[in-house]
Amino acid sequence: MKQKSTATNPSFMAKNKDLLVVGGVIVVLAGAATAYYFMTKKKEKKEAQLASASSSGITTVSSSSSSYQTPPFIPSSSTSSSSSTKPIITKTGYPLKYGSRHPDVKILQRYLKIYKEDLGKTGPKRDGVDGQFGPKTSRAAQKRLKKTVFTQADIAGMRKALSSLGK
């Protein structure tokens, strides 16, 4: 008698392995693209809300359970003359005065360093030259230069003096 050889039929997974892999990749990419689309749409909506809220001066803060509005920040006008507090940065242009933060304040501070004034331990070289017109810079300027408000002409003169000294 002849023996029957029974070959088992390959399973569905074995037959369609390539098709299943390609289909899975397509599903994952479609899901990622959909998630990206909705996240960017949500981000644009939030930025539009922030832009409209900032123009009115009121910020909306929302959490998972509630939404509330915070009033705009209004800095206090109290001034403190103690040297332990940090200066409130208010000005970024000319004239340079207490509270200014400007690259030309560094020129003033380097000029004051010629007179060996103590400007603290801030800045990249830890010598007090940091570009912030704080209490120590103000005190040193009053002591050596007899003034605490500086114009562009004043800074230009200091720049020229520093370059002639090679500093």
Task: Describe this entry's structure for a reader.
The structure is a single chain. This protein has about 170 residues and is mainly alpha-helical. It has 2 domains: about 15-70; about 105-165, no CATH class. About 50% of the residues lie in helices and about 5% in strands. It has 5 helices and 2 strands; from the N terminus they run H-H-E-E-H-H-H. It has helices at about 10-15, 15-55, 105-115, 135-145, 150-165; strands spanning about 60, 65-70. The chain has a two-stranded antiparallel ribbon with strand order 1-2. Helix 3 crosses helix 5 (about 150-165). The longest helix has about 40 residues, at about 15-55. The chain is elongated.
What are the SSEs and their pairings?
Layout: H1 12-15, H2 17-56, E1 59-62, E2 67-70, H3 103-114, H4 135-145, H5 152-165
Antiparallel strand pairs: 1-2
Structural class computed from helices and strand pairing: mainly alpha
Strand order of the largest sheet: 1-2
Uncertain segments: none
Number of DSSP helical runs: 5
Task: Give the helix proportion (percent range).
Answer: 40-55%
The chain-level mean pLDDT equals 81
What key phrases describe this protein's structure?
167 residues; mainly alpha; two-stranded antiparallel ribbon; 2 strands; 5% strand
Short description:
This protein has helices at about 10-15, 15-55, 105-115, 135-145, 150-165; strands spanning about 60, 65-70. With about 170 residues, the chain is mainly alpha-helical. The protein is elongated, with a radius of gyration of 34 Å.
